[in-house]
Design brief:
Blueprint (H helix, E strand, L loop, with lengths): L1 E5 L3 H12 L4 E4 L11 E6 L2 E6 L10 H12 L3 E3 L4 E4 L5 E3 L6 E3 L4 H8 L4 E2 L4 E7 L2 E6 L4 E10 L7 H4 L4 H8 L8 E6 L9 E4 L4 E6 L10 E7 L1 H6 L5 H13 L1
Parallel strand pairs: 1-2, 1-12, 2-9, 6-14
Antiparallel strand pairs: 3-4, 5-8, 6-7, 10-11, 11-12, 13-16, 14-15, 15-16
Helix pairs in contact: 1-3
Bound molecules: flavin-adenine dinucleotide.
The site of flavin-adenine dinucleotide has 27 residues, from α1.
Length: about 260
Amino acid sequence: MAIAVIGAGMAGLSAAQELLSAGKEVRLFDKGRGPGGRMSTRWVELNGQQVRFDHGAQYLTARSDQFQSVLEGWVESGVAAEWQAQIVDLDHHGQAKPRPKQKRYVGTPGMNGIIRHLASDLDVKWGMRVIDIQKTSGQWRLVFEDGRAEDGFEAVILAIPAEQLPPLTRQCAPEIAKVAERIQSEPCWTTLAVFKDRVPAEWQAARTSEGAVAWIANNASKPQRGDFEAWVLQASANWSRTHLEDDKDAITDACLRRFAI
Ligand SMILES: Cc1cc2nc3c(=O)[nH]c(=O)nc-3n(C[C@H](O)[C@H](O)[C@H](O)COP(=O)(O)OP(=O)(O)OC[C@H]3O[C@@H](n4cnc5c(N)ncnc54)[C@H](O)[C@@H]3O)c2cc1C
């Protein structure tokens, strides 16, 4: 019997890869149109060319030798590269203080390159949102938004954000629903900007602790991102929560104004 994995982001795909190497049959289902999850890459067309932005996860670092060798394997496979960026802390006067150097990696040609690679030898079905999980005669059954169902699973792994667990598990695994109900993810408003002229910054990315924006990155400084002056501005969790329901043009305005200082 196969094991079902709901969610084909970094967590679901890593779990599936482990199960596959242990000789298990695994099938993954994801509501997204393609690979990415919170490591997704957005693109827009400008002058007939694609401009790509990493709008979720910005880079990866390794805190163990094991993960370091996984990262190096991805580099060898051509789906990741080291991002040799100068990253600084910006104070409220705009003064930059370099952050300690460390090896930082990004997916290529976008963060989702890693997710696409992990998914490539797995049985993943995209565009399938699970709306119910049932257990009958010792087997698990998944029901999808479009009315279809798949059954006969030995186990189900849920690799989706905590807030999305309660409606799926309230009936079949109430103890999981109860834990998930106590978890709340932080929001993050993100502005994706392309400038006509080069931005005169001597660093590639910055963290700030004041005002709207908490993270600024020159997306174009990452490997294989093209020549456009493309920047990603991520607002702090506090600011995003306070402005959660604001109009997106007002958000863009506030973030760009902060960037201009
Ligand atoms: C703005 C932002 C910045 C970040 N920056 C960094 C960073 O710089 N470095 C870093 O290491 N991490 C960063 N992170 C965290 C990192 O992106 C996440 O920890 C990681 O990508 C989560 O992976 P996951 O597989 O757990 O979840 P996800 O990537 O969210 O994958 C879950 C998947 O489940 C699918 N799904 C959800 N519900 C259903 C359903 N009902 N049916 C079917 N499919 C479903 C979704 O489509 C999604 O693909 C950042 C996250 C965000 C949001």
